[in-house]
Amino acid sequence: MQFMLLIYTAEGTGPQPGSDEFGAFMKGYVDFTETVKQDGKMVAGDALQPIATATTVSVRGGKSEIMDGPFAETKEQLGGYYLLDCEDLDEAVKYAAMIPSAEHGRIEVRPVMVWDN
Amino acid sequence: MLPPLTLQRTIDRTVREEWGRILACLVKAVGDLQLAEDCLQDAVVSAMNHWQKNGLPNSPAAWLITAARRKAIDRLRKDRNFACRQDEISYLIELDNQALEDGEPELIPDKRLEMIFTCCHPALAEKTRVALTLRTLGGLTTEEIAHAFLDRPDAMAQRLVRAKKKISLAGIPYKIPDSTVLPERIASVLSVIYLIFNEGYSASSGDALTRTDLIEEAIRLARIVNRLIPDNTEVSGLLALLLLHDARRFARTGKLGELIPLDMQNRRRWDQAKIAEGVGILETVLPKRRLGAYQLQAAISAVHAQSPSWQETDWPQIEALYNLLYAVQPSPVVRINQAVAVSYARSLEAALAMLDEAATGGVLDAYQPYFAARADILARAGRTQDAKKNFGTAIDLSDNSQEKAFLHDKISHL
Q1: CA torsion angle for B37, B38, B44, B47 (degrees, to 10)?
Q2: In sequence order, what are the residues at sequence separation of 6 or more whose Cβ sits closer than 8 angstroms to the Cβ of residue B154?
Q3: Distance from first CA to last CA of chain B, Å, rounded?
Q4: Is A111–B171 a contact, with Cβ atoms under 8 angstroms apart?
Q5: Closest partner residue to A90 among B80, B81, B173, by Cβ?
Q6: For chain A, what is the radius of gyration of the CA atoms?
C-alpha cells in the first residue's frame, strides 16, 4: 500500500544553508532517496519552496478568493514529502524515521486512500 | 440435552476462554479485525441455537471457528466489492474443506501473539490499546470495558470501532514485529498488561467485581505472552510482579474497603501459592542476568513477600534492588521509594537528604507521594510539626478519598 510521508518543520530550525552541517544534512536526503529507490519503495518525492512563496485559494459562492500565505499559520509547516510503496505501517514508520528532518521536525505518515472502482 | 442455564454457562465459558484464540485465527484468515469480530459474534448466536438442539459438539472452539468462517464467506459474498474479496473467499473455503476432510476437530493455530502486537501498536492511543486488548484478547464485552473505565458504553464502542478502522486503513500489521523494533514493541505490550493490572489494583474506578476481573485478566494475558515469548526475562518478570502483588489482594483492604499499608497487613492472608509461583519464576530468570524494571520490581516485592514480618524486612536488600531499579528507570517515584528503603536500611537523615535532592528546583511540588513519604520519615525522626505540614500538603494533593482518610489517620496518630 502507498504511504505519504509528510515532512513538517519549523522554518529556520535545523541545519541552515551555508552552515557546516548543511552539506551533511543534504547528503542525508540524497542517501535516503537513493535507499528508498534501491529498496523499490519510491513512488515520488519532492521538496517545497518556503512558505513565503505560498498562495491559498478558496471558492465561496462561486467567487475565488486568493490569499497570500499558507493555509494555516502554524509553527511547523509542510516542507516536502515522499510517496512510498510499503508493506505496512511498520515499514513506512521505519523509513519515516530515516528522513533527515525527523531529527528536528516531524514526519506525518498517512496511508493513501484506495478507491473501490 | 443440556438445560438452557447450563448451556448458556458453557457457551459463556467457552467464548470467554477461547475468544482471543478464535478471533486471532479468524483475523489471520479474513484480514480484518472488525469483520472477524462480527462473524465470531454471529457464530456465538448460532451456537446457542444449534447446541440447544443437537447437544454440545466435541470441540466447541473448533465448532465456533468453523461457523465463524462460514459467516465470513457469506458476509464477503454479500460485499459490494465481491470481486476484490475473491482471494479471501477462496482461502476460507479451502480452510473449510480441510476441516471437513480432517474429520477431527482441527488444531487451532495460536495467532494471539500477532494480535496482541496489533492491539498494542504505538500508533494507537494508550487507552485505546488497553481497551482493544481487553476486547480482542480478553473477550470482555464493550459494556464491561466501559464500566471498568467509568466510560459511557457508546463512547467506548466508538473508541473501539475507530481503532479497528485505523488498524485496517493505516496498514497496522498483523504480525510479529521485525527484530529491530521487537524489544520496544514487547515493552509496549507489557505496559498495556501492567496498565490493565493497575486499573484493577488501584481503586481508581469501577466496582470491586470489575476490578478483580481486570486483575485476573492481566495475569491471564501475562501468562499467555510468557508462554508465547518464552525467552524474554522481562515478560517473565512482569508475570512474577503481577503474581506477587496480587498475592496481597485480600490483605490490602479492610472490611470497609479502606487501604491497609504493607506494615499493617496480616501476612497470614497473603496467598502463598501465588508467592511461590512468583518467586519460582524469579529464581529462573534472575540468574540469566538480563535485568529490567519488571524483574527488579518483582524482586523487591518478593523480598517483602518472603519476610515473616514488617520488622524483619531485609531493608539493605531492598535498598540494593532500588539502586538497580533507579539505574534502569530513573523516575521520581523510584527515587522516593529508594529513599524510603534508605530510611529503614540506614538512616532517616540520609533518606531526607535524598528526598531534598530529588525535589531540587520544585520538580516534585505537586507530587503527592513525595510529601506522604517525607511526612512519614519526619514523623519517625520525631519532627512532628514538620510531619504535620507535609501530611497536610499530601492530603491537599490527593484526589482519592481513601488515600485522604488514610493520611488524616496518620496525622491523628502523631
Answers
A1: -130
A2: none
A3: 67
A4: yes
A5: B173
A6: 16
Q: Which of residues 78-107 of A touch B (CB under 8 A)?
A: 86-90, 92-94
- Report chain B's mean pLDDT, rounded to a whole number: 88
Q: Select from A84, A81, A85 the least CA-distant residue to A106.
A: A81
Q: Which helix (H) or strand (E) holds B241?
A: helix B233-246
Distance from CA of B172 to the nearest CA of A (A): 5
Would the pLDDT of B403 be above 50?
A: yes
- Tell me if B123 and A88 make a contact (CB, 8 A cut-off): no
Chain B CB contacts of A92 under 8 Å are 171
Strands laid side by side in the A2-10 sheet: A42-47, A76-85, A2-10, A106-111
Cβ contacts of B385 within 8 Å, gap of 6 or more: none
Lowest mean pLDDT, pick from B190-199, B205-214, B388-397: B205-214
| Rounded mean pLDDT, B181-210 | 81
- Write down the pLDDT at residue B103: 46
Q: Is there a contact between B181 and A116 if contact means CB atoms under 8 Å apart?
A: no
pLDDT at B206 over 60: no
Q: Do A111 and B123 touch (CB under 8 A)?
A: no
Q: What's the predicted TM-score (pTM) here?
A: 0.85
A67 touches chain B (CB under 8 A): no
Are the C-beta atoms of B37 and B167 separated by less than 8 Å? no
Whether residue B170 and residue A116 make contact (CB cut-off 8 A), yes or no, is no
Q: What gap in Å lies between CA B145 and CA B140, rounded to an integer?
A: 7
CA distance B101 to B94: 11
Contact B173 A116 (CB under 8 A): no
Say if A6 is an interface residue toward chain B (CB within 8 Å): no
Other CB atoms within 10 Å distance of the CB of residue B129: 24
Kindly report which listed range (B296-300, B309-313, B401-405) carries the lowest average pLDDT score. B401-405
Q: Is B280 exposed, middle or buried (0-12, 13-18, 19+ CB in 10 A)?
A: exposed
Which amino acid is located at B374 in the chain?
R
pLDDT at B98: 67
Are B115 and B174 within 8 A, CB to CB?
yes
**Which pLDDT band holds residue B209 (cuts at 50, 70, 90)?**
low
Is pLDDT at A108 greater than 70 in this prediction? Answer: yes
Q: pLDDT tens digits for A60-106?
A: 999 999 999 888 878 899 999 999 999 999 999 999 999 999 999 99
Q: Taking a contact as any Cβ pair under 8 Å apart, which residues of chain B between 76 and 135 contact chain A?
A: 80-81, 84, 121, 123
CB contact under 8 A, B171 and A94: no
Contacts of B265 (CB under 8 A, 6+ apart): B248, B251, B252
